[in-house]
Amino acid sequence: MYVKECIVSAPGKAILHGEHAVVHGKVALAVSLNLRTYLKLRATNTGKVSINLPNIDTFLCWDASELKQLIQHSCGKQEDVKRLDAELVKRLREFVGVADGNLDTSNMATLAFLYSYLCLFGKGELPSLTISVWSELPTGAGLGSSAAYSVCLAAALLCASGAISSPLKEWDHTARWCQEDLELINSWAFQGEMIIHGNPSGVDNAVGTWGGMLRFLAGRIIPLSRVPLLRILLTNTKVPRSTKFPTIMTSVLDSVDAISCTCEKILLEMTCEPITGEHYNVLEELIDINQHHLNVMGVGHPALDTLCRVTLARGLHSKLTGAGGGGCGITLLRPETDTAVIQSTIQDLNDCNFDCWETSIGGPGVQIHSPRSLKEDILGTLNRF
Fold first, then answer.
1. What is the pLDDT of residues 349-372, one digit of tens each?
2. Could you tell me the sign of the dihedral formed by the alpha carbons of 266, 267, 270, 271, in that order?
3. Beta bridge partners of 28
4. Which of 9, 70, 226, 286 has the fewest other C-beta atoms within 10 Å?
5. What's this model's pTM, rounded to 2 decimal places?
6. Catalytic annotation, residues
7. Angle at CA of residue 205, ends 250 and 40, nearest 5°
8. 269 φ/ψ sector (left φ>0, alpha ψ -120 to 50, else beta)
């Protein structure tokens, strides 16, 4: 192993504009959330391979020699990163005991880990190591939690295998990889997403890798070089989100497309000229119009209507993010929004039995950390196992 210990993190994602329109060839804007998944990899000399996922009460441990038996001659070819090894996935599903059943969160995380581990280390002796993961992201809420996990796995295992080097210098608190390494991380993370979701778009893992904001159009994902950091409230209604694709009128699709393009233009303006109240006025108007369109599409929900009504009573503007039919919503916070207003709004939403976080969008993608850069509670959780 080239890296004996490392701590990496990757952000979740929200869809700012363009939900559902993207499947019809229109623009969608995805942004990183400043809610992150953290992963610590540590080499051991125990002959064991273990993974600890305290968010979902999962601890699993195997003998490295036991895992070695799962490898066939075709495994371990790092150049095959763009092609999922279906035979290995089948063997892993049988090994985990889910050959014929649906995967729960624990099984999906386990399969993604074992697949990457065996592919990256399969050519030689399998190293003993332990992986510990802690996430600030709720699972199953459409916020890219599985992609953040897959990105962290890819970055840590690639570093440990020597496929990429650690960019962290002795004096650094955090560091990011070069573009070439990020592309490799993203490719391996996409493999994890394929194991978990079957046929993912690639947007979630791209946001986790590059951060900031990405433009998604006709299958092409374009990271935008500069975006402003915007404060938001993120609210989980705890109503299961819908995965259906609605039938949408062309006029509504064209309008949503125009909203996405206008939002992109405004955000780029905010990075190269003084930010004014007018910028926020336009962003708030776009949020209101898009939420109306999403209701017209039939992907709204009474819980999301409640979110919009509660925040508007405080002068704040909200919309759903993701598939809709429940799920999560985002609320834009202006720079001058008073702390008391924010806290009162969070309390109002909690009183509706929603979970709510004050956070931001547009932050960095996957990073490697020195231990001193982490909050004590996160570091304590990662070190506990």
1. 999 999 999 999 999 999 999 999
2. negative
3. 216
4. 226
5. 0.93
6. 146, 204
7. 155
8. alpha
